[in-house]
Design goal:
Distance between the termini: 24 Å
Largest sheet: 5 strands, mixed
Radius of gyration: 17 Å
Number of strands: 5
């Protein structure tokens, strides 16, 4: 996926806030996005550019939160695990590790968005649930959207709420949709829930019901887990 495919989600996240958000492709011209060193270098390059821009007006007490979608989310998690002192939080959008691998412990406030049903070959147990487990039992949040029930959606929308719905038009290969009303609505829910998380940095996490109200306020059924709560194994949809 290219950096310019996440414009809609980025706009929804920063809308009405003082958040500065940069979407970067840390390994351009390649579909392989698993390198945490390249990810960390790209983040530092962006921060250096922001610091050098007198018009950026970034607060000196800023908080640096990094994250990514799919393989990029796994690279971001690995960068956080390797150098947690450089970041203030991690955001995983259905982060996907390489087959047979997993997540290193993430000792940072963590927000993860995932799905109940496996799409695009991404297993929730290894992806979103794996990242949530790697964050330990501290300041962590997992939002799971039920994309297998049809609840709150037209029947033909289920297949369009999938692993690549974060991008403006989906991936264009295995995951359809993204540019339709369902994609727009889900990205709004993601942004609303993520803004709740961002406000908790430097303090304690928000309650489960606050995330649920933010993430599910447009009709899509969601499950929310925070802090000490574990994800039950039963109920997954393959």
């Amino acid at each position: 996926m290219r950096a310019d495919q996440y414009g809609d989600l980025a706009r929804k996240i920063v809308e009405g806030t003082r958040t500065f958000l940069a979407v970067v492709d840390f390994n351009p011209f390649s579909v392989v996005k698993y390198d945490p060193k390249k990810f960390a270098a790209a983040v530092q390059s962006v921060l250096a550019d922001v610091d050098a821009d007198a018009a950026a007006l970034v607060s000196p007490d800023r908080r640096v939160v990094v994250g990514g979608h799919s393989a990029g989310g796994h690279a971001a998690a690995a960068a956080c695990a390797a150098d947690p002192g450089s970041y203030d939080g991690f955001v995983g959008l259905d982060p996907c590790p390489l087959p047979g691998s997993g997540f290193e412990p993430i000792p940072l406030p963590t927000f993860v968005w995932g799905f109940r049903k496996k799409t695009c070959g991404v297993d929730p147990a290894a992806a979103s649930e794996g990242a949530y487990a790697a964050a330990g039992h501290g300041h962590r949040t997992l939002v799971v959207l039920d994309n297998g029930s049809g609840g709150g959606r037209a029947a033909d929308e289920d297949s369009r709420v999938n692993h690549c719905v974060f991008a403006d038009g989906g991936c264009g290969v295995a995951c359809p949709g993204g540019a339709d009303a369902a994609g727009d609505r889900v990205r709004r829910c993601i942004a609303d829930a993520l803004r709740v998380f961002l406000k908790t940095l430097g303090g304690t996490n928000s309650r489960q019901e606050i995330y649920r109200n933010a993430a599910g306020n447009r009709g899509d059924p969601v499950e929310v887990y925070v802090d000490e709560e574990e994800v039950p194994i039963v109920g997954r949809v393959k």
